[in-house]
Amino acid sequence: MEHISHAPVRPTREFAPAFDVDGWDRRSRASRRMAIPLLLSGTVISMQTRNSRYRIVVLDGAARHVTIKGGWAFPEETEATVVGASDGDGEVESGWIAEGLRLRLSTERGPVVTSAVESIAVDGADAA
After folding, report:
1. What is the pLDDT of residue 125?
2. How many domains in the chain?
């Protein structure tokens, strides 16, 4: 007769969601990262780069469509598409904003690349 153990089963690895509900990537501990496609319309993001401060409002997260204001490139609110986070060597993490990397945007006037992102936060949310 086979012996059956009734001891609780312990999982070998944790299957926690990779993303918090506000779009933060929990897998990366090196820098804060935000996935624009996971954010709801109306989400407001504050972003500080090495040279400028920006206010970004998500219009359509899945399409990465936003408005952005700040810095010399965007003195007025401007519609843009978030291309992604760039390391400056051509590598782009599509749809992401990440501390330590530049943000690439596509606008009617053409492409815009910010200086390195120093901090990002969702306004009105505990981003810590």
Report:
1. 55
2. 1
Length of the chain: 128
Q: Provide the pLDDT for residue 19.
A: 46
User: How far from chain centre, in Å, is Cα 89?
Assistant: 19
Kindly state whether residue 93 falls inside one of the protein's structural domains: yes
* Domain range for 46: 33-122
**Residues 9-26 as b or e (16 or more Cβ within 10 Å = b):** eeeeeeeeeeeeebbbbe
Q: State the SS3 of 11-61.
A: CCCCCCCCECCCCEECCCCCCCEEEHHHCCCCCEEEEEECCCEEEEEEEEC
Q: Is the residue at 10 inside a domain?
A: no
Instruction: Determine, yes or no, domain membership for 67.
Output: yes
At 64-106, the pLDDT tens digits run 999 999 999 999 999 999 999 998 777 899 999 999 999 999 9
Counting residues of the chain whose pLDDT is more than 70, the rounded percentage is 73
| Among 33, 51, 38, residue whose Cα is nearest residue 98 | 33
What is the average pLDDT across 41-47? 97
Residue 51 within any structural domain of the chain: yes
